[in-house]
UniProtKB/TrEMBL annotation:
The chain crosses the membrane at residues 194-216. This is SGCA protein. Keywords: Membrane, Signal, Transmembrane, Transmembrane helix. InterPro entries: Sarcoglycan_alpha/epsilon, Sarcoglycan_C. It comes from Probosciger aterrimus (Palm cockatoo). It comes from the Eukaryota. The keyword Signal applies.
Length: 227
């Protein structure tokens, strides 16, 4: 408790520091990422949990409890946690060290079943309008997250991911130019007439310089005292 984690998928190293003692620990991990066997979940919702820190929702037991609460408002059973992100990484402010305030956590949940009417209504344009007025958004179901999880319903985001079409990839050659052949570029660029651009670039500065010379000569020769 009190540790904050960050890492990089390229360096394969996780560095943690203790918020109380500022002690740091580094650990090298090997992470294997494979695509889901049935593809990406088409229906995804992102919830902002205001009374939790990111390390409190990383354990599997805490995520299972959150999925059970999500199933009550989503009305689906095949829910999966896709991502857990601290609100500080999304532009949130560091909370004051009083009253046990938390940073906030964004939790992305996916399912193959559609959104419930309650979630759709909470993320509708009318609900966003009420949030802009400082009022509570519309909700037609019982909040199964309370009191364990405090959901900021004005920050609810629903996303429907459509499967990307799988097309044939490019056909790669041997990379060796055939003997006796000339390299042909893949596309031919039509010739451009560069004369107008050259004249504009040359004549416009000359015309400005000539006007400045005439103005300076008029001021120095024709505006002298006694003339």
């Amino acid at each position: 408790r009190g540790w904050h984690l960050w890492g990089c998928s390229l360096c394969w190293q996780v560095l943690a520091y203790n918020r109380l003692t500022y002690e740091t620990v580094a650990q090298r991990l090997i992470i294997t990422i494979i695509p889901a066997p049935r593809g990406e979940l088409p229906f995804q919702g992102e919830f902002l949990v205001g009374n939790r820190n990111v390390e409190e929702l990383l354990p599997t037991a805490a995520r299972d409890i959150f999925l059970q609460a999500t199933a009550g408002v989503w009305e689906q059973e095949d829910l999966q946690v896709i991502n857990v992100t601290s609100a500080l990484d999304r532009g949130g402010r560091v909370p004051l060290p009083i009253e046990g305030r938390k940073e906030g956590v964004y939790v992305s949940v996916g399912s193959r079943g559609p959104f419930s009417g309650c979630l759709t209504l909470a993320a509708s344009a009318q609900s966003h309008f009420l949030c802009s007025l400082g009022q509570q958004p519309l909700a037609s179901c019982y909040d199964t997250f309370a009191p364990r999880f405090s959901i900021r319903w004005c920050n609810l985001t629903l996303l429907q991911v459509w499967p990307s079409p799988t097309g044939l990839g490019p056909v790669w050659g041997s990379g060796v130019l055939e003997e006796g052949g000339d390299f042909q570029p893949p596309t031919e660029v039509p010739p451009h007439d560069l004369l107008p651009g050259f004249l504009v670039t040359l004549l416009v500065p000359l015309a400005v310089a000539a006007l400045l010379c005439l103005l300076l000569g008029h001021l120095m020769c024709c505006r002298r005292e006694g003339v």
